[in-house]
């Protein structure tokens, strides 16, 4: 897909936040996707990767070493700031409230996962509506498919990693099956899209 098609997908959109979900293979995918974004990036970014319960997440530290913008673990009641990358911690579901702050909760695991991608995406769709981009990457179950569909239904832009490129294609395939996303792209083109949000 060339830049003009990506520009067409972004036309008329005022994007304020990006939510990203991934599972198996997700760390490697994000390491290809996120480094290189500018220090003064205009959108807030929130990522959920499936983390085994009881295991500390070191994702924020790993990515902070490789990125120009601030990276940290999302905290309960924290206001979401532009130009920051947030990771969901282990053991809690992460949601976005209407006032665009984070909420952590201990509801039962969803799709065997806590944090679950659907919790983040469905709540962010409610909070941001058309000002949201949802991105679903490699993974081994159907978590994120319903969340991405909710983002699409709320008018947000939905992006799925091309299953042929994904380390584990189940998650992107489920999302495509449930509701046709706006864009199905390889990681390099998703990175280009993220860079283009800067100038949108």
Q: How would you spell out the order of helices and strands?
A: HEHEHEEEEHEHEHEH
Q: What is the number of strand segments? A: 9
Radius of gyration: 15 Å
Query: Which geometry do the CA atoms define?
Result: globular
Instruction: Determine the CATH superfamily.
Output: Methylesterase CheB, C-terminal domain
Distance between the termini: 18 Å
How is the main sheet built?
7 strands, parallel
Question: In brief, what are we looking at here?
Answer:
Helices cover 32% and strands 20% of the residues. The strands form two sheets. A seven-stranded parallel sheet has the order 3-4-2-1-7-8-9, sandwiched between helices. A two-stranded antiparallel ribbon has the order 5-6. It is globular and about 45 Å long.
Task: Give an overview of the whole structure.
The chain is of the alpha/beta class and 200 residues long. It has a single domain, classed as Methylesterase CheB, C-terminal domain (Rossmann fold). The chain has 7 helices and 9 strands. Helix 1 crosses helix 7. The radius of gyration is 15 Å and the shape is globular.
How is this fold's topology laid out?
Layout: H1 3-10, E1 17-22, H2 26-33, E2 44-49, H3 59-64, E3 71-73, E4 85-87, E5 93-96, E6 102-105, H4 117-128, E7 132-136, H5 145-153, E8 157-161, H6 170-178, E9 183-185, H7 187-197
Parallel strand pairs: 1-2, 1-7, 2-4, 3-4, 7-8, 8-9
Antiparallel strand pairs: 5-6
């Amino acid at each position: 897909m060339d830049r003009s098609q990506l520009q067409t997908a972004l036309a008329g959109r005022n994007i304020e936040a990006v939510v990203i979900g991934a599972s198996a293979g997700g760390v490697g995918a994000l390491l290809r996707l996120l480094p290189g974004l500018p220090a003064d990036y205009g959108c807030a970014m929130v990522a959920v990767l499936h983390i085994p319960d009881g295991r500390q997440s070191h994702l924020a530290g790993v990515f902070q070493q490789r990125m120009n913008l601030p990276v940290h673990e999302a905290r309960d009641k924290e206001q979401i700031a532009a130009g920051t990358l947030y990771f969901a911690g282990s053991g809690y579901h992460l949601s976005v409230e209407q006032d665009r702050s984070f909420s952590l909760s201990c509801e039962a695991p969803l799709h065997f996962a806590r944090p679950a991608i659907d919790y983040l995406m469905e709540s962010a769709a409610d909070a941001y509506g058309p000002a949201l981009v949802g991105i679903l990457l490699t993974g081994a179950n159907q978590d994120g498919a319903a969340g991405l569909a909710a983002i699409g239904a709320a008018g947000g832009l939905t992006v799925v990693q091309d299953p042929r490129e994904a380390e584990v294609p189940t998650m992107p395939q489920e999302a495509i099956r449930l509701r046709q996303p706006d864009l199905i792209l390889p990681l390099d083109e998703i990175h280009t899209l993220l860079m283009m949000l800067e100038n949108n």
